[in-house]
Amino acid sequence: MGDSGSFALGTALGVIAMLTDTVYLLPIIGGVFVAEAGSSLIQIVSKKVRGKKIFKIAPIHHHFEASGWPEAKVTMRFWILAMLFAIFGLVLYLLEYGS
Prior knowledge:
The chain is an all-alpha fold. The protein has helices at residues 3-19, 26-29, 31-49, 60-66, 71-97. It has one domain (23-97). The protein has five helices and no strands. The N and C termini lie far apart (37 Å). The mean pLDDT is 91.
């Protein structure tokens, strides 16, 4: 998926979250995406402020690959994390809005 497709899907998710008043759940359900963006942000800030890198390379999935993990292993681990974040977000949603 390119930039345009991912931007469209992200915008659609954001609009749906605002319409259903569940905006606070987006960072939880998309925890892997938040971690990926956060790792890049941490790396940039660390480079500018301290002059040192925290990760070998950012975003964090590249750091794991540079550490010797095969790409398939990184992908599977991120799928598992994404599933856990999604389940956690769904549980929070059901606790708040479930009957």
